Predict the structure.
Amino acid sequence: MITKIKLSLLILCCYAFSCSTNSMDSLKASVIKVNITPDFEDPVWLDGYPERTQPCEGVHNDIFMRIVALDDGDQTIFIISADLYAIQDDFYDSAMDELEKASEFKREQILWTCTHTYSAPEVSLNGRNPEYSKFLKETLVHAIKKAYTQLEPATIGSAMGRSFVNMNRRGEYADGSIQITKNPYAVVDREVGVIKIEKANGEPLAILINYPCHGTALYHTNMKISGDIAESTTRYVEQQFNNDVVALYLNGASGDVDPVYAYMRDIKDTNFELDILGIMLGKDVLETMEKIQTVEPVELQSVYKEIHVPRKQSEKNTVGPVLPVNISIVRIGDVILAASSANAFNEIGMAIKHMSPYAKTFYIGHCNGYAGYIPTEITFQKGGYEVESSHTTTEAEWLFTHHIVEELRKMKSMNDN
């Protein structure tokens, strides 16, 4: 029994936004950091690598759930980052049902993303970690309600930078096969987006980091819980502020992207390669932060929608003809968080950012459920692990991108009129 935990949807479309035309209330914000590392009276199973055949054997580093609450006087939005592999759709729906029963908040207000570490407990409605999944759901509801009670006046700003700690992982060999490896010649999105939230007195409150990268620095031979590259990055950034700031990692379109140090087999209690990845990315985050000027007030707006893309032929008869994908779009002033439950290829995330009518658009994956890989159309011709694992077809790239960009254009048109 777990005795210690240290402290999206089938709708057409839902918009929520501030309608004030004369003035806006001041922005308020809060941040909560909850340790979600289990104890081991009943060891948990790790998610990510199917090669693991037994429960985990300890903790390499603690994992956390971090929550930012934002309120502009008319709209409240919660941005949640959890050091987990994924939140399966059934568990996500169940957690949102519990939240709506226990509070005034709706799933349309929630952006719940996972860092996609391959060394965190499995979370699902009927999976191998029922007690841990129950505790996680209870912790989520409690933390959201607590974050709402701690709102205080704040300012917010953002900037874009670059970091070179990721690399495309799809390598094409002489025999034409595609293998997971390091491919420095393939396209990779190295843009790092940073959002800084400050208290009214100018002290930093929270830092949001958007960067595409699988949490696979550690290999399946690692049997200890770890937040992988996301945890090492947020830990480093928080340490630079004497842990008085909470840093959230919002993973991007990481479907075909790994860390430059990946699948490390010889994991020690203190691992230089894992820590150095966090330091490298963390330093780039801090450098990007220097360009940020925070502003207030800002207007909040959100849209939440379930879209459908076609399933691959082998799944149509058993599961159904379409794959549901949740998309969530949050506007914070002139900053857009375009999120989905898909594990999209980085080229797709780059296309969405490029086609967005908003200059500051961050793409976030693994959010509000998990739909699996969405590869690019050309990738299906070449094959490889991601294509074989995907539930969808060649049409998914265009449909997925089109739906998100169209919602962004609708939002922009609505705001311009």
In short: Residues 1-23 have pLDDT under 50 and may be disordered. Residues 14-416 form one domain.
